[in-house]
């Protein structure tokens, strides 16, 4: 078991370098925020378009199939499961719906002498009647509202998780922190410690693999001891895992102390005096093209994605 490689979400793909890798991280953040906010108050057609757009972008980027097959497969399975559950669940409306129009239209006719006014039933047109309940078989009932809710929730789950994962997949941690620091520069006027925040985020991203490594080592140490969990019982098993959790916390604190000592030995006093430029930010032709497409994206959202 290798937690550093088996996790399906949030891993950075170093090779091969796709065109998504080469985009400026600030542009990718703008695209990510657009994907995460454009489905707000949008119709279901636009939400489905976002899902299709993410899938097409992954294929066009030529990301190896072995990388996104498991990630996209699990997310599509989860989204489909949520869709099925919500579509057959009660829609929360206890109102008995009836047709809004009468079955036969009433037409007012005026006699020639103008003495009496008669109501005559005119034949209705042979159109399909509106049905609120789309499917009802035994305890299973699917309504228009439940289908609408199912599409909304399932597409939101896929869009939020996979768009964030695609960004992490094609953007190095150092590029992420550099882009965030660059976008937060206007906050310096409000005396916000932008550099300190960026440094903390960088150290946090660098510390995640160390946490996974410690968890992996402790799990392996428990497995190699061939503990008879049935013999220990619930209370004994809980004591073992408490000891493992305590050991994990001690190891993580030790790693953090070693990291702090390494920074002090190198003369690190403050982020402003010891800035390390991990990545040089510069907008190139492909970045301006991505910005132009983003403008068209929002134009399409305003014209096609609004609720009726």
From TrEMBL:
Subcellular localization: Membrane
Membrane disposition: Multi-pass membrane protein
Keyword line: Membrane, Transmembrane, Transmembrane helix
Any one GO CC term of the record: plasma membrane
Positions of transmembrane segments: 44-61, 73-90
Matching InterPro entries: ABC/ECF_trnsptr_transmembrane
PANTHER family xrefs: PROTEIN ABCI12, CHLOROPLASTIC
Name the UniProt record assigns to this protein: Energy-coupling factor transporter transmembrane protein EcfT
Organism: Umezakia ovalisporum FSS-62
Lineage, opening ranks: Bacteria, Bacillati, Cyanobacteriota, Cyanophyceae, Nostocales
